[in-house]
Fold each of these.
Amino acid sequence: MENPTLSFICPIILFLSLGFGYSNGQSYSLQMYHKFSHEVKQWMTWRNGLHTESWPMEGSNEYYKTLYHHDSVHHGRKLAEYSSLTFAEGNQTVELPQLGFLFYTVVQVGTPNVTLLVALDTGSDLFWVPCDCQECAPTSAPSYGLDIDLQTYSPSASQTSKPVTCNNNLCDLQNQCSKSSDQCPYNVTYLSENTSTAGTLVEDVLYLIPGDGSQNGTVVKAPITFGCGRVQTGTFLEGAAPNGLLGLGIEPISVPTVLHKSGLVSNSFSMCFSRNITVGSFTFGDKGSSDQKETPFIINKKHPIYNIGVQEFYVGNALVKTEFQALFDTGTSFTYLANSVYKSLTSNYHLQTQDTPLTIDGSNLPFKYCYNARNRQSIKQGRKITFNFNGGNNFSAIQPLIFLRDTTGKFVGYCLAVLQSSSISIIGQNFMAGYQIVFDRDELKLGWKEANCYDLQYSSSSAPAPAPAPAPAPTPSNITPIQSPLGPSSVVGSPDTSYPSSSRGSPPKQSVSPDALPAKPNSTSDGTHLSSFFLHSALSFIVAIAILTIIL
């Protein structure tokens, strides 16, 4: 006799195939269907009369977001313990031209804690620091024109350090391990030419404080996985991120992902960029405000990055009807546009400007569209570049220009700070100037709102942060913008480069007790000087791109 089969439609996949044995020798099987499958839709319509047209399409952003929310409920994850978190030294960030034009912040890791000046990068995932170096950038102050030496991390010197073994889910290079108990290797290659970092993965603690001032003096010791970078190449040996790089991407190994899965904060973070692209702020768990503009991320399952869709854009009054995708990358100084988009934007800009072209002999500037400025009004007109994103909201570049002085300090002109790319488009730091940018990975959307970043800053010290120092006036010949070592990259495996009104108010100052952090070997160590440098002196080094505040 043929075994009877029972077809049962299960709205969620929780089990493997099941079999039941009975004394009469008959067996029964269950057919399992995904909650959004065609079969479940048919059954729900027939059984309950439900309309399933609004159910998310497989592979869409809404599809993965819905599954993610189900996972959160199924695994019983508690609500985030903190509304927001930031680094133990405070939430300030600063762009340092002598360190590759990247945005930096001070972090503390290990026990006793080591203080590091790390670059922040939304274009990659792994947090790594130079460690037990075989080939690393120098950390001495004279190498970078700083007034402090950079500290280094060593797993053997930290009481809380643990090796990450090859059987860990975060290890992507398990095929390079001889046995599962080996320490997991990593190797990340970036878009900048010949730029990479390699080493092993370790687990240690990252020191954070509540980002809203609600628990004054509280220090959170968050276990994280990061790279012990023994070998760096390319731009990393030329001054970019000499003390490490904190990847803020979407992959499981990134710090925002780890903090969220630990139940500490919401799966989101924000970065604020001042109008002159010199200082800013950073906060984990920040989902922005109800009045911010938003656009959905376009998630590639093979390599998820912060891609958004552009439907069209304006240059002045000229509308350019062209659709393309662009990566929002805080680790790239300027904005790069793929060939066809670049030509459309720059040609329309050039046709509309009434300023004459500017030629600078002996300049190594990469910008092709530079002009003599007739007056302030002509410069203001040149700023009108607006993208219409998917979802209907527009994003205007507040400061798409750079301004040039000669060797005597005289203002000589300006350039459209947009560069040509062979394939991918990247919205860089210069187009984010004047905005608080929210990377909401929970809702899979990007948020933005004009903001005064100084009002969003605070320090773990009771002393107020100083006003920013004026930017030094560079000569055109010494402006050397770099595409940072950032961009789409593989986290711990081989790279996939097929992608090529006012603010919300100032949080209270926080005071963190020295007892809250592990004791340092020497209370007058470089970590103290580094904090002082970052909070009080770093702004004197600001950008070698002279933004004329009188024009802002």
Amino acid sequence: MEFGEFWLLADLRESNHLAKSIAILKRVPVLLKPSQLQKRRQAILELNNLIKATLQVIECIDQFGKLSVYPPKDVPALSIALEHTPVDIYWAIMTVVACATKVTLLTSDEDKEFDLSPYSQKIHYVLNKLKIQLIVCHKQIEEAKNHRYILNLLRRPTEIMEVFKGLIFTKDNVQPLIDGSTKQTVNIDVLRRKNVLLFISGLDITDDDISILKPIHELTKKENQYKIVWVPIVEKWTDELRKKFEILKNKMPWFTVQQPGPIAGIKVIKEEWNFKGKPTLVVMNPQGKVEHSNALHMIRVWGVKAFPFTEKIEKELSHSHGEIHSVVEGVHPSVPSWLKENRYIFFYGGKDNEWIQQFTKKATALANDPILKEAKIYIELVCVGKNSKGEDDNGILGRFWTNIESLFLTKVDKQVDSVSQEIQKLLSYKNESGWAVLTRGSTVLVTGHGVSVLKVVEDFEKWKEHVKEKGFEFCFKAYYGRVVQASRPCCRLDIPGSTGKVPESMKCPDCQRNMETYISYKCCHIDGPTAHH
């Protein structure tokens, strides 16, 4: 204020007698002498700049006060800024006092130095910090407004194209889509009044993730009311990731969001649809209503049979029988025919090759036993993870466990039945030394830990005499029950958090007690030393 008053009096003193008198009292003419102005020019400039910076700091603090009307959860950066406000105010006051002292010295006859540089450094640091915090706050406010807008679109849907625009594109930046079948751009009007399947993923998707949707795409070509759109989610794009995007895009015959960049509704995608990096397929009807937040699991299990991929269809299919059929038929070429013939099949595997060899030997001896041959009981063996030539095939093994996991997730929110219990058991053995599943056709008879099932097979001589009278199935299950009662290993079930569907509690499939909950973290270094997303 004193500095402003000084220059106002300097400006008015030639035309206003009162101003001239006050200027003399304030010693304005002392500083305005040409010799004094020349001598103290640099000091005046520094003072002027410091006062301007201090005023800007005060203005920023005032703006933060005005922003406090927004909910803290919408503007988390505001809380951080307000925590430091008392310190910022302190430095603003200290700088004002220092400037007033400098003005007094400049208008006096004393030739006394007063260094403002420490105050200048501090106030400019505070100003830069506040400007950055204001930018972040305004960005968060804009994101919060956009988030509410998208939620309102989803809760009061009217037309799929409008929902899609609001979800994917920022304002005034609506881009055309890329038609994967022609590699040409098309207007998003192609989605108007259509059922849209949003294939949301990062760039770490596999060819299997893409191939699983190709039969669905063929179906949508016949059913012109359905369209698939790939929405790639990448937090920070690089040239390398753009190249990867182009490669993946060229593998997809459906639509792709063009010119990848920030997704307007990323918060909705993560919070409402539980997207955590793994591929997700969100099904929306022509009004923009979500019919399924992730239909990919049901497609892995039932394929095109799950059309039109709604939660209602999933519920109906989850109560049907024969789900295991679609999960296991791809592990060996002969499995589909064996299932149709209603044969007994041992599916088995594990982390311990020695256990696998031992089980193969003992189970082969059991299958070839004269008593079973005489009773015309045929048992087939399928080592999951081996191809038709008996060679290791990690692709088959990976798809098997992915499909088992998907089958489990289609049932996780449903009423517990015998199939869901057997699937839960099998998942709990995924990282064990050995495991085995005995089926008859598509019906699961026994799912067991490798130690238990191997014991039953090894002890065949002790119970085979009852097979003719009571049947192989009854005898196997009865002996297995006795073995399990004698030795019951811990049951551990790992559910990836990236699936989005993680139940709050889970009952043990063996004893029906509530299982303890643990949290673990895992990294397989898929993207090399450092990840890009």
Amino acid sequence: MSTNSTLARLIKTGHHNRTKSLRRLLLLAAEPKSSHHALSLFQLMPYPRTFDWNILIRAHAHFSPSTSISLFSTMRLNGVIPDHFTLPFVLKACASLRIEKGLHSLVLKLGFCNDTFVQNAMISFYGSCGSVDRALKVFDESPAKDLVSWSSMIACYVNNAFEYEALALFQKMQLTDSIKPDEIMLITLLSAIRSLGDLELGKWVHKFIERKAFELSVRLGTALIEMYSRCASIDDSIKVFDEMPVRNIFTWSALINGLAVHGRTRKAVELFYKMKENGFQPDFVTFNGVLVACSHGGLIEEGFRVFNSIKNEYNMEPKLEQYGCMVDLLGRAGLLYEAFELVNRMPADPSPIIWRTLLGACVNHKNLLLAEKVGEKLQEVDPSHDGDYVLLSNVYGGKDKWVEKERVLNLMGENRISKRPGYSLITMGSVVEKFIAGDDSHPQSEEIKTFLASLIERLRVVGYSPVKSIVLFDVEEEEKEHNLMYHSEKMAVAFALLKFKDNRTIRVMKNIRICCDCHSFIKHVSNAFNREIIIRDRNRFHHFSKGSCSCRDYCLLKATFQPYAHSVDISPVYLYDH
């Protein structure tokens, strides 16, 4: 029976003024699609109590936080005292809007400073607002911490990029015999490890899950697949996928995406069709994954087949992300004017990322005329992005047009736009070592540079030759080689060879795309030292082994588009470290 018909029956029987009857109906109406009915019913109540206000405040906290806060203010003006249920609902609304409204003072005034329910809500609130110190203060002062207290503080750390602190707090919680983690907490931890890219920590949490006999649910299994993929162990992702008793569309999409960014492009496409055979309908995230696979693998016909199926087979309209993948696919293949035409035929205005993807392809294929056109479009939609200036200056440098290159860089300076440097990260034990291109800030930089110079000479003997053509400056050949020598990923790999005397896999995380010269250098290192080296750059993973790379060198055709919100930062910045 609908809310309207129930209310009509109450009026007909003369019960519409009875608070008990209205309260029962109010509980039924307190949902987004009936919120206007709920407000109307509430106004019929002669003397609403705290419970009645809580119903409305809670209902609106999810979909209309400003209304929830307004109701709370009216409640207080009417002299109704909030209870320990009211404040968590209001805190949730305030967190959505990132405003405090003096609630912490009110909590203290009303004597809820020892109420676990309210304290947990305060931790979540401060975490949502980025106030980690305040959240930690509330957590430390909570007299009776329950599972939600620990989960809220761990989530606060993870959501504010304090991943190691989250893991340390989880370990501290293990010393508390009365608190046992649940699935939600473990998924949050896996999210932290996914961001860190720390495989050993990921395996430690996975073993904890197995030791405590947690069921491999859809959510937990999918989180493990994503974690292993981001930690450069796609084989472990496949193993988890195969062991899962039940999968959903998110599970399939996670593995398709993982296979795509790890260079197993044909396997990603095969898995896409296997998913369809198993009765799952792809969503836009799935399409993104398989289109990235086609782009990274140079599978042009397959890419168009999948793209066209979005509308023809599933009656869905492709979004910007799918168009971006197709622009990337065409750009890598050198079909620049086809890509430009596709951008102009898009039903919505192209995003700066899509124009930037095309500009990167123009740079790689040295198409100056089209690069200038695309550069003009980017100046209209996003004039302050440093990467666009660098990309355009690079295409001029690639054509030996040094005056024009200097003009672009000068314009960049006049607009006070600076280029962020390339850097690489490598984990040694619990310490993350950071290397910045051409920087001497690392305490062992002299030792690393000396070793790197000797390493390059050793590799020259077996065929390595610096790719000096990517140094797009009008300088002597010797200076070009010097410019290439100290790229951040070379420094990181040299450091690993110095410190890791065993045959462990070397894993490096990089904030920008790997350049052609470093790619060649690391291929030779993997062969000369018989080491597997994995470089995670902003677009994909490169698995180097025995002198070859999983990308089969197709990655060297400029790629910038990454449509995943849960992936590496999607906005391409610049081509190389220099």
